[in-house]
Amino acid sequence: MTAPAAGPTSAPPDTTPTTSTPGTGADGVPPRILPRAHAPRLRALDGLRLVAALMVAGYHYGGRDGEVTQAWGSSPQHQFPLLHSYFAYGCLGVQVFFVISGFVICMSGWGRTLRAFFASRASRLLPAYWAAIVIVTAVFALPVVAYKAVSPSDALVNLTMLQQPLGVDRVLGVCWTLWAEVRFYALFALCIVLPGASRQRVILFCAGWTLAAAIAQAANEPLLNLVLMPEYAPFFIGGVGLYLVHRDRRDAYAWGIVGVSWLIGQHYAVQRLWHAPNPDFFSYRTSFGIVLVVTLGYVAVAAIALGWLNWANWRWLSVAGALTYPFYLVHEHLGWVAIQAYHRTLHIPSYGTFLLTVATMLLLAWLLNRYVEEWLTPKIRTALSRVRS
Known about the structure:
mainly alpha
C-alpha cells in the first residue's frame, strides 16, 4: 500500500541509539537507529489492507459504469439496485492504502541504508507486477475475450512502471496508484532514508511536504503537481505521522501532522468525488459519506498505531496481507472476464457472480504469491542488496 504494495508490517524498531555522536543533545539529530530483529508483526494492518482492496474491488465490480457494464450486460446500477450506491464509496480504499503506505514505508525505511530500502521496494513491487502485466496482456489477446489488449510495444513499456508519465496505454487500470507510490518512495528515500531517519527529520519532511504541496496547488504548476502530488500527499503524510504516534503516542507534533493531513485529505477527497445530485450520474456520494470513509480509514490505522488492535494476531491475517497486492493488480481487468463468464455464460445471479469473481481473484493472487513472489522476491532483493566494488 501500499497502495497495497506497502511491504512488511512488523512493529517499530528499537528506539535506543546504539552509538552516541558528540554535540547532539535532546533537540539534535540522533545517529541512525538500527532496527531490532524479530519485531512482532502488526497483523491487523495486513487485515486492513485486504479490507481496502475489497473496497476497491466492490467499486470496480458494482460501483461504477465503464467496461464492467459490458461484462455484466447492463449497468451495475441494475445488477445491484440496493448496494451500488455503497459500492461507489469503495474507490476511497485507495486513500486508505496511501495512509497505510505512509505508515509502513516510514517503519520499514527507518534505520535502513538507501541500497537496502531500494532493494526492499523493488523486490516487493516488481515480481507480482510483471506477472500481472504478462497475464492480463495474454488473456486480453485471446480471441474469445471481448476486451482489447494494448500493443506489444506499450505492453513492454508497462513493465517499467513508467507508462503513465510516458503517455503509454496502461495494461492495468490500477497502476496509476503505483505511480503515486513510486513518487512517494522517491521523496522519502531522498529526504529521510539517504540522510538517515530521525524523529526531527521526519517531522520536518512532513511539514515541508505539506507546505510545498499547498504552494504547488496554488501555483497550478504541472511539474510541481507531478512531484508533490497535492491531492494524495496528505494521505501519505498522515500515515507517516501515525507511525510517529506508534513510536510515541504522546508526541504532540505527530498528532498535529495526523490532524492537518486528515483535514486536507478529506478536502481533496470531497473535491474529487462529490457532485451535486444528478440522475444522469451512476451514483451519488454525499460529502458526509466521503468524509466518513476517509475518517474511518485514519481511525483504523490510528487504532493499530496505538496498539488497540494488537489482539488481532491471527496467522491468517498475514496471509491476507500477502494476497492483497497481487489481488489488487489483477482484480479489475481479469474481473471483467470472470464476471462475463460467470454471469452471462453460466447465468449465475449477480450476487453469486460478485462473490465468485472475488474468490477467483483471491485464488489467482495466492498462486502469484506462492509461485512468483515467494520465488522471485528474495532473488531480486539479494541481487540488489549485494555490495559491489
